[in-house]
Amino acid sequence: MPPGWLLLIWVLLTLPLLAGVSADADLFWHILAGQRILAERAIPMIDDWSYTASGHPWINHEWLSQIVMAGIWEAFGNRGLLALRALVLLGAAFFLGLALWKRCPDPFWATLLFCLPLWVYSELINLRPLGVTTMGVTLVLLLLTIARTGARWPLWALGGCFLVWCNLHAGFMFGLGISGIAILLMVRSGIQPPGAVLCLLIYPLVTIVLNPFGISLWEYIFREVGSPHPHLPEWNPPEPALAVVAMVFFLLPIVLAIWRRTSALPEEWLGLLISHAMTMQSARFIVLEIMFALLAIASGLGRRPPAHPFLTCPRRALINLAALGAIFGTFHLGLMKPPGRIPIDPRRYPVGGIAYLRAAAGPSKLWLPLGWGGYAIFHLSQRGVKVAIDGRNTTVYPVDFVVAHSHLLVDGKAEPIRQVDPDVLMGYASGPLYDTFTTWSDYEQVYRDDLCAIFVRRGFPWNHPSVIPSGITEFPG
After folding, report:
1. What pLDDT sits at residue 324?
2. What is each CA distance from 22 to 76, 123, 341, 342, in whole angstroms?
3. Under 8 Å CB-to-CB from 396, ≥6 apart: which residues?
4. What is the pTM of this model?
5. Which phi and psi (to 5°) does residue 402 adopt?
6. How do residues 178-196 score in pLDDT, each as one tens digit?
7. DSSP label at 364?
8. Contact residues for 282 (Cβ-Cβ < 8 A; gap 6+)
9. By CB distance 3.0 to 4.6 Å, which of 83, 143, 196, 283 could disulfide with 192?
10. Could you tell me the superkingdom of the organism this chain comes from (predicted)?
11. How many H-runs (helices) and E-runs (strands) does the chain carry?
């Protein structure tokens, strides 16, 4: 373990990132799903929140995360959700930090490497079950690091990890892949006994047998990974700036290995190569690449630490100086986020439009962009409003349906909307789709603000409020 004073520095470096976080599009329906599971004591297996997929199977692979989130929110409110996020973020940071320390027990270099991914965590770990996968990957990397010493208990711990993880988020598949490669290499090198290969059978079997959806969960995961996601930038190749970052992290361990004449572990090189290839196809995997790059760098530094006197002689003073500077900088930036709050960004989400529909809408069929669907479900489902599409994505809706309703936001070709025959339309207040809506004579515009516009089918019963309510920009709105 790192010394206590170093752990304290790591905590101080991480704390400013925990001040607050904006509401995510999916937070709304995750909380509602958790409330429903707690109330009904059952996991909903079919959809009844939409009118386009009503009765279809719903592979709700995040059900356990939703129970935890809803239970904490009902008991402790928004501050409870922020505390839960803080726990996940701290877990991700410290699990990886400990894995780095075991490779390179040097306070300066370990702290520097610990800091590099902090801002990635702060962006990726928001109020969504996806954050569990980021933490889960770092935990797997730490357990595999310990298993490399010949210890057997981490292999048992990994089994328990996958048992829980497969009910929290479908990202457990990344952990299975990483574990499988590492265990095979450890058996091949004699670090673990040949019987450890059985883990490659036991771990997947655990995730199939001990989740409510059985093999259907695996079928969903492979279908999702192989599907196009035009509406989700993180599922597509990285933008040029992010591609440069990915290339830098890919090259850093290689340059270090050549310069210092050291080498990382075989599984670290393999993990770096695979994660870099995945990142070039889908930007969301850059966090995996960063993790493997840092592990490879730490292994190289640990085998032959730099001997420059500037880094070795005044090490304690240098660490303290760097820590104070980093703490000041991160704390200053952290204050830019409202501490202790979960704001809803009115520039991204239709705060005013949802407030209007809460006052005006009764039972109806509502079309709106996928990213707004969960927000609408949370506030309008009790009023009998059914949505055409929402952030549950391909866990409920067919892939082709999701793709079609994503493309139309860009090209304005609204034939897929005509096919689902909504009573109410809510879209952006400008752009090609808005222009298309204004040409439809069978719909009339009843509301518009800076972000969204609402159209209602002519003749459809509608209770237009005499006073248009203002939206609330704090979760849940």
Report:
1. 58
2. 18, 10, 8, 5
3. 47, 50, 53, 56, 57, 58, 59, 390
4. 0.91
5. -65, -45
6. 999 999 999 999 999 999 9
7. E
8. 234, 235, 236, 237
9. 196
10. Bacteria
11. 20, 5
